[in-house]
Prior knowledge:
It contains three helices and 13 strands. The protein has 280 residues and is mainly beta. It has an eight-stranded antiparallel β-barrel. β5 and β6 form a beta hairpin. The radius of gyration is 27 Å and the shape is elongated. The protein starts with a helix and ends in an 11-residue tail after the last strand.
Amino acid sequence: MKKYSFLFFILLYIPSMAQMTGGILLGPSLNLMSAAGLKKQVLNSSENLGVNVNYSSRMRPGFSLGGYLEYMVKPDLFLMGELALNIRSTRILLNSYTSSLNPSGNGGTVRVTSEANFSTFSVSLPLYTKYILQKEKNIYGIAGFLLSFSAAPRLRSDEERVDVTYLNNIIRSTETKEIDTKVKINKYQLFAPSLMLGVGKPFRIESRKINIELRYALPLYGGRLHTTNDSFQGEAMNNSVFSNTLPYSTIRNFKTHSLFLIFSYPLFNFEAPKVEEEAF
């Protein structure tokens, strides 16, 4: 009985494998952090302290490397699964200005220019479908989900503080201080699901087929992000918003948007055997 069960499993397994293709993939990415909660938190806190703050996010490059499996449901529809390693980085700029000048031109100003650079290593599991949109041009669309599991992000805080003292509207002294700190974010979102959409097209280079895809990963919800590193809390100024100190609290609704350019190359292909019909 066990032999027949094993044979039955093989008969089911081989045809399914016969419609599968597998290979490697790699490519660069551009990543952007968004945090509506952070921006609101920074502006509200700075307003209470009499500080003018400009907040902005910047794209940073990343890289992906992994493998994929492709299962053909029918000639124009495929189910896809991937396992990839990702290195992603993003940047947030916080520039602040404070003035204590009185009507007589006495007092001082403090200007702080800050960059918060994040780098993250993650393992992602994209699960999606691929559908041929134009058979003549062989253009296809992809849609599905990307599940990411991240290690602790690294934060490099680069800040420059310039203190200027005035006497009767005349500059008496200027002091510049560089504050550069590296810390690990120990409170962060481990699991991050995203909706993935994109388009692709296969190309042939010297009889080799290479797929080129442009993908966008839209995060479905945001997570928390902050550090409890004591030295960082004592040194950083603008970027202390990422520490767990008053008047700031845990940053929430943190999201990472990613744009991928993926190159994939098939390594194996199991084709279903052709069955010839017999004439009766």
